[in-house]
């Protein structure tokens, strides 16, 4: 079932990319280069969405103390971090032909980089704490705290003077372009959810093994 | 077109942008596979 979902998601993703590359109309002002946005923008959306998922997992863990929420929180943070790296890379690929530079310390770019640093820190922090309960509590608290940067990233183009353009809406986009953008976003979401499904199963097994290894050997178990 | 010039010679960038998500997904999938192998090894050692 999981594998089938992953294959379907990959096919969907391939179709969305094909549409972005060959079916969506050429932009009157920017020409073909705008096609990068069909991967960059959904990647950025997914980054923020997965960090939001991580935030909800942290919150749910602090309220209920159930380990499944801790697993959900760090699995989504991990996937979000991969998407964050992808977004930064795609942003650079977009910046070079349009702005003339690979990188500039613009508010959107800077806050997105900070997001990467913060969530990398969170995952490193998890590795440093041995006790599972303490680790879950600490990382849930830190997860709640660092999520504050997510709305800052989103609003940075409105709050500060930025070279990065502000969010487009379907109202100021060609319907074909808007449709391709949405399709691409759902394709990204499908692949990420399929990968998350695998990751969550793996995380559950990791927890079970950790629990088994941390238990002191019983009298019967000692040779 | 009203006197504006479209940016030319951009297909290398577009190609890189469309390949990058595949690279990320494949790297992540490989990471999951390696972890899975490690877990299987641990499980067989602790049976």
User: Overall pLDDT of chain B, averaged?
Assistant: 86
Q: Which term fits the overall shape of chain B?
A: rod-shaped
Extract low-pLDDT stretches of chain B: none
Distance between the termini of chain B: 71 Å
Radius of gyration computed on alpha carbons of chain B? 22 Å
DSSP helix fraction of chain B: over 70%
- Helix content bin of chain A: over 70%
Helix-and-strand structural type of chain A: mainly alpha
Largest interface: A-B, 39 and 27 residues
What's the helix count of chain B? 1
User: Could you give a short account of the major beta sheet of chain A?
Assistant: none
Summarize the structure.
The complex is a heterodimer of chains A (about 220) and B (about 45). Chain A is mainly alpha-helical. Helices cover about 75% and strands about 0% of the residues of chain A.
Report on this structure.
The complex is a heterodimer of chains A (223) and B (47). Chain A has 223 residues and is mainly alpha-helical. Helix content of chain A is 77%, strand content 0%. The radius of gyration of chain A is 20 Å and the shape is globular. Chain B has 47 residues and is mainly α. In chain B, 74% of the residues lie in helices and 0% in strands. Chain B is rod-shaped and about 70 Å long.
